[in-house]
């Protein structure tokens, strides 16, 4: 998946994660949200609300159960965005 | 990291927050003297961290009803509601709750936690959606998870945010359950129920209101936020607990939808657990009677709430948006909250300490729960101590 929408989601997410975690770690698609960025469950849920607003979609929080890396989160958002009406 | 190492990591994180001295969580209460006083260690403390809103834990009517039930029916039912655990008292209490709310149906659960777990997981399932306030109690989150429905959060008490998320659901609103709480347990604020009802009607979804903290506290007869706002008929399902104003343990759901009765056959938290003990049911029935007639208790409670809320504000504490029986001093760091909590205990005042992630927005809370049995003198003392300790949270 290399279309512009996917890249847009990746960019937005990396920017938000960078400011949210205030970290000097370089955020890549393979960065682990929990072990590397120390994103706790509440921060992740609040981030999801921001992403929902940014892309005008609904992301059920139970869909996050299998998400560990930045790429997995982008994949989920992309899937929801492209299948939404 | 294996399973046990994960627990070790959690323990280390907890120890980092609470390194020494008296543990703030699960503190042993050695003796209970009254609805407002107990012994912790060697201290006789003022209880300001219970949910005993009407102060009925030692009400003679409830105690004698519980004694009589034990003598008559024994200590436990030893079975589930589905099997041998539905005694006369369980059914009577269900009728009494339904009548109290002018509803056609009522169901009693073994705990308040299970009331939300059982009601939510019975109402929605895979393919449905639940829209919940971001400050929802864990029992609501867990009920939603158990249900398998899609869970979407809206910003706490933000009606515009709720509407935005309802709109995004499109046709799925038909199978969407919106959940709010009469009084939220962290900051003590109330749901904007009139606006939520307006959206429920506009989008034709279903609405559940949890009155756990508002039962006995709001409304002329203590029904909760539905009574205070005059919106009883607009809420589809009302849940609540016995473990706050009713001073026992258990929970309920009432509704005018006849389908509520089906929960008895599909809701695992209702079916697969032992039913409440006869003593619990008996004391709850007695307490519900006292609650309904307890206008004088609600007046005393609100006098106490207003006195302490205003005193904390005047002393410079950041508190929740509404006065009420839950009054939280909001501080920036866990260390500040712990220091304040400890100092209050050293002044013989027990309150609740709430740290992230349980506290909203990364803050920490020193949470007071006021009750009707507190005297004005006790409230003054608490206010004086908070005022004296204000510099601890600068």
Question: How would you concisely characterize the structure shown here?
Answer:
The complex is a heterodimer of chains A (85) and B (394). With 85 residues, chain A is mainly alpha-helical.
Descriptive account of the structure:
The complex is a heterodimer of chains A (85) and B (394). Chain A has 85 residues and is an all-alpha fold. Helices cover 55% and strands 0% of the residues of chain A. Chain A is globular and about 35 Å long. Chain A starts with a helix and ends with a helix. Chain B is an alpha/beta fold and 394 residues long. In chain B, 41% of the residues lie in helices and 17% in strands. In chain B, the strands form three sheets. In chain B, strands 4-10-9-8-7-5-6 form a seven-stranded mixed beta sheet, with helices on both faces. The longest helix of chain B has 20 residues, at 295-314. Classes of the chains: A mainly alpha (85), B alpha/beta (394). At the A-B interface, α2 of A face β6 and α6 of B.
Label this structure with key terms:
heterodimer; A: 85 residues; mainly alpha; Non-ribosomal Peptide Synthetase Peptidyl Carrier Protein, Chain A; 55% helix; B: 394 residues; alpha/beta; Aspartate Aminotransferase, domain 1; Aspartate Aminotransferase, domain 2; 2 domains; 7-stranded mixed beta sheet; 14 helices
């Amino acid at each position: 998946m290399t279309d512009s929408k996917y890249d847009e989601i990746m960019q937005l997410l990396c920017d938000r994660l960078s400011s949210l975690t205030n970290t000097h770690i370089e955020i890549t698609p393979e960065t682990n949200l929990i072990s590397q960025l120390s994103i706790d469950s509440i921060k992740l849920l609040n981030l999801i609300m921001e992403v929902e607003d940014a892309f005008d979609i609904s992301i059920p929080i139970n869909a996050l159960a299998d998400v560990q890396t930045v790429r997995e989160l982008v994949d989920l958002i992309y899937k929801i965005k492209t299948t939404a009406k | 990291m294996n399973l046990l190492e994960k627990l070790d990591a959690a323990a280390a994180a907890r120890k980092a927050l609470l390194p020494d001295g008296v543990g703030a969580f699960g503190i042993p209460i050695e003796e209970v003297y009254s609805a407002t006083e107990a012994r912790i260690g060697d201290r006789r403390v003022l209880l300001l961290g219970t949910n005993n809103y009407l102060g009925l834990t030692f009400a003679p009517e409830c105690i004698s009803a519980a004694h009589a039930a034990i003598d008559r029916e024994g200590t436990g039912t030893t079975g589930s509601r589905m099997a041998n655990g539905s005694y006369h008292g369980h059914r009577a209490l269900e009728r009494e709750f339904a009548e109290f709310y002018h509803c056609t149906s009522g169901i009693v659960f073994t705990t308040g936690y299970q009331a939300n777990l059982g009601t939510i997981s019975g109402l929605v399932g895979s393919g449905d959606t639940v829209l919940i306030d971001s400050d929802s109690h864990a029992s609501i989150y867990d009920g939603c998870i158990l249900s398998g429905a899609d869970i979407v959060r809206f910003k706490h008490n933000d009606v515009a945010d709720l509407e935005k998320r309802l709109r995004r659901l499109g046709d799925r609103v038909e199978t969407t359950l919106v959940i709010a709480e009469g009084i939220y347990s962290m900051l003590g604020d109330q749901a904007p129920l009139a606006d939520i009802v307006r959206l429920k009607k506009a989008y034709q979804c279903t609405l559940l209101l949890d009155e756990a903290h508002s039962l006995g506290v709001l409304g002329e007869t203590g029904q909760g936020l539905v009574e205070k706002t005059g919106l009883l008929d607009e809420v589809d399902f009302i849940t609540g607990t016995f473990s706050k104003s009713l001073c026992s343990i258990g929970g309920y759901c009432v509704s005018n939808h006849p389908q509520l009765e089906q929960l008895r056959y599909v809701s695992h938290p209702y079916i697969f657990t032992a039913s409440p003990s006869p003593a619990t049911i008996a004391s709850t029935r007695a307490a519900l009677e006292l609650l309904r007639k307890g206008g004088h208790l609600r007046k005393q409670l609100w006098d106490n709430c207003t006195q302490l809320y205003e005193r904390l504000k005047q002393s410079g504490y950041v508190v929740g948006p509404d006065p009420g029986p839950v009054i939280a001093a909001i501080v920036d760091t866990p260390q500040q909250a712990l220091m304040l909590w400890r100092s209050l205990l050293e002044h013989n005042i027990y309150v609740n300490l709430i740290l992230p992630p349980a506290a909203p927005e990364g803050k920490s809370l020193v949470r007071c729960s006021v009750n009707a049995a507190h005297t004005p003198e006790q409230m003054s003392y608490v206010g004086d101590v908070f005022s004296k300790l204000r510099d601890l949270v600068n």
